[in-house]
Specification:
Layout (H helix, E strand, L loop, with lengths): L2 E5 L2 H5 L7 E6 L5 E7 L4 H6 L13 E6 L3 H15 L9
Antiparallel strand pairs: 1-4, 2-3, 2-4
Length: 95
């Protein structure tokens, strides 16, 4: 499983691969996790862009880290584990 980190802006997001489902983390400059989510294959860039400043679901952050998964089910399990462990500030608690 491949991991990639890039700047959390339109240019950075457009360079992310979207050939597999991913778990993504929107992080602060210092690396603190603000939000964790998943995106389906073919929709990675579009889904992460929904969190950019000025959008309906905006989340503050400086960088985004993705981890490619083999299936969406595997991505959901990993997302759930990360959220319960790190309790990111912008995830709805109790998810």
């Amino acid at each position: 499983m491949s991991t990639k980190t890039t700047k959390f802006n339109k240019n950075g997001i457009n360079n992310l691969p979207d050939d597999k489902p991913v778990v993504y983390k929107i992080q602060t400059e210092g690396g603190k996790n603000n939000y964790t989510g998943i995106a389906k294959r073919g929709r990675v860039q579009e889904r992460i862009a929904e969190h950019l400043l000025g959008s309906k679901d905006s989340v503050p952050g400086a960088k985004v880290q993705i981890q490619q998964m083999n299936s969406i089910a595997e991505a959901r399990k990993t997302e759930s584990r990360i959220i319960s462990r790190s309790q990111p500030k912008h995830n709805k608690q109790g998810k």
